[in-house]
Fold this protein.
Amino acid sequence: MRTRNRIAPEGERTLLRLPRHFLTGSELSASELDQLLARAAELKSAPHSSQVLAGCSVALIFQRPSTRTRLSFEAGVAELGGHPMVLRTDEVQLSRGESVKDTAYVLSRHAAAIGIRTGPDELVSELAEHAGVPVINMLTAGHHPCQALADLLTMREAFGAVAGRRLAYVGDGNNVARSLAIVGGLAGLEVRVASPSGYELEPVAGAILTDDPREAVKDADAVYTDVWLSMNDDLATAQERRRALAPFRLDEQLLELAAPHAIALHCLPAHVGEEITAGVLYGPRQRIWDQAENRRHAQKALLELLIASA
Ligand code: CP
Ligand code: NVA
């Protein structure tokens, strides 16, 4: 058994099991991911069948805005029998200089798990380093692994198994693209990422990178896009981003190049007329609103897995 006594300040000798964290998605094995997706599908069909969090609280820290993540985690924790404690930036002493380490120590004394949405990935890593309970990345500048779980669940619903399927992401090589490459790669997806110069994803997890959106989308089973300006990006870059990313808009013509059965995906929030057209967002091929719902089911399966391992 892996053990440590990190959350016990000096002087206390409590020996604790090492918690499992979910910071990038690469913490999971391929078979754990497969089982997690199967479990998420079960929980979707029977939302109140698990009470794994009965009597427990889960701390959910939001240092950035959120609609879907907040709703899906808060509702999901409640469905699992737990109590979600939603904490905005100005509601925790972290915003007044309390250290990440001390915050981790205290949260771990009250919560069975900690979710955090913030900017720096380093902050989440530091929180995980000192926490005695699982830490979940609810979006950072670098990663959005919970979103990728919901995306894979949505593809699984459309196609059965996801291994061997082709996912084309067109647009900014951002946190969502990176998590799709990592988590999608783990699931055996062929992930293609098309971005313009200056907005490329770095080589990650076997993803195929290109600057040609048409090449990426050709014969794909799913076509995905995301906003051109992320919440951790500098607002001053918005104009330049619109100019560079315009040829990567997901419109009906681009989607037409994908496989006849292809589905369109977007993590939301969407900016209609920028990265996606209304025709795709509300059209017959979209599974985007299912994706938004699937956040809850996938995260419940994730919480079950992490709590069981804690
Ligand atoms: N997709 C997603 O994470 O949405 P929110 O920013 O609304 O949570
Ligand atoms: N890339 C986007 C995703 C929002 C869910 C952002 O980070 O703002």
